Predict the structure.
Amino acid sequence: MENQDKIICSELFQKQRKVEVVLYPAVLAWKEIEKSSKRSSGTSESEHGQTVKVCEIVAVHKTEDEADAQPRSHPKRINQPSQQYPHAFTVSYVRRTRQHLWRCADVTFHCADQQICEQWVQVINEQLSLLTNRPKNLLVYINPYGGKRRGERIYEQKVAPVFRQAGIFTDVIVTERANHARDHLKMEANLDDYDGVVCVGGDGMFSEILHGLVTRIQTDHGVDQNQPDAELVPCSLRIGIIPAGSTDCICFATQGTNDPVTSALHIVVGDSQPMDVCSVHHNGVFLKYSVSLLGYGFYGDVLTDSERNRWLGPARYDLSGFKTFLSHNYYGGTVSFLPADDNVGHPRDKLQCRSGCRICQHKHSSKDEHDEASEEKEKPAEDSDRGWNVIHGKFIAINSASMSCACPRSPKGLSPSAHLADGTTDLILVRKCSRLDFFRHLLRHTNNDDQFDHWFVEVHRVRKFRFEPWHPDLAPLEDASEHPESPDLSPISSLQETYDDRTAESSWNCDGEILHHTAIQVSVQCQLIRLFARGIEEQQDAEVAV
Ligand SMILES: CCCCCCCCCCCCC/C=C/[C@@H](O)[C@H](CO)NC(=O)CCCCCCCCCCCCCCC
Ligand SMILES: Nc1ncnc2c1ncn2[C@@H]1O[C@H](COP(=O)(O)OP(=O)(O)OP(=O)(O)O)[C@@H](O)[C@H]1O
Ligand SMILES: [Ca+2]
């Protein structure tokens, strides 16, 4: 074993091939040095070798099992490399497969000398111990009733073995009721014992963790959440999401897939993705936090209807979506919003938030300066409406997407160019239109067409917004912005009979939970939390060169 300038190099044996294994300061590389006659043509893999970033090594251990230590195809033949190389160690590492899926792969190296074998295990472990962003102790909450009710099984079969392999200690709590996890975090959990909190469930379970953690931190720091302008204290603990829900949009939009093993590996390697959180108030009283969708009208009605059919599992949303689509309700109200600065782009600029996103990084570095300036602007009572835009109208949907909200139903999401951590939310206003037009708009969530390119849709990137439903007595008789009637799919008059557009109110869907107030004030809290994620990787990130 050579150890020059912290580069360690040995000739070892892997799958009956002699390989040169090199540990650079941040990369482990191995390459075949003697090709057997069978493989004389070589493959691109054997010619160029393979590399793994040290930060993506899950674990290394001495391979004790004889069957593992010996090359598998010829365990009994004499004069085989297994005799010359009786010692072995195995490196487990992250391997990218298709579409943002990560898997844990193993490579076993055989050595002639026990000491060399042990040295390799030691030096790799030393490098791993320098990676201080990796969690060592995690608090795990499992919702046994989320999604298709597979939370416990998913955790035991797919996630716990990965954590065990990486030497992570866990305290696991299987929840016994709704809000069990939230209340435990708020009042009981000893947060100092952990580097992160993991939820096994869907967006609703994530919301519990979010509320428990954020509320706990504010209470510990004496911050009053009821003050809409209070500067909230960011959470130091990161949150991991093991998807086992019905929509899993937070997981999907932060790592590009809703796969439990991929999530577990993002936690093991200690990824960190900051994320915006919207605080929602009603007349100065705190209601909820939201990280994905705040939706009034269509998505509020879908959720209200779907709650009656929870037993259907994820399919409840499709049924309720279909019913709500047929109802074709619209709601009067006034939306006011404070637009974001131009430097965070525009919802239609087609710049997608990806791993290491420049817009989110820029926003973070300019956050303090920006916040001071904006406070100045908003302080004087008489000036409180300065910079605000006001829109009155009848809306089929009012959606605020603080992230893309990509999910398997809509792989590009409600707002494909929304950013995870830029301090803004994309406010999408879908005005009253025909059923056919609304159908076209919905359909564009599933293909490459621009869902904002309709006369009845407008989208704004905002830092704050308010909504006020029309009071029936004050509602204008006709909405001036209405477009002349365009062709409908079919008049479904029976569904409309009891519908009075002057009194109708919808509810807000707040990350999959119903809010009990319709008049709300929303403010984006830039990068309030961090997830064990890295954003969606560009495909070429999968390769590493040495
Ligand atoms: C023609 C097909 C059009 C399909 C259009 C699909 C658009 C889907 C957009 C999904 C956006 C999800 C946003 C995430 C919200 C989460 O915080 C929340 C908690 O998990 N999930 C939901 O509220 C769950 C919301 C689930 C909403 C499902 C809506 C399904 C609409 C179906 C309309 C059918 C029309 C058919 C006409 C013949
Ligand atoms: N032990 C429990 N019993 C009943 N409800 C629970 C329990 N633990 C958590 N919950 C609640 O179950 C609700 C739904 O959970 P979850 O988000 O995991 O799944 P989902 O609704 O199917 O998925 P999604 O939110 O992604 O649509 C959450 O609001 C959560 O508060
Ligand atoms: Ca955002």
Summary: The chain has 15 helices and 22 strands. The two ends are 20 Å apart (CA to CA). Residues 76 and 189 are 54 Å apart (CA to CA).
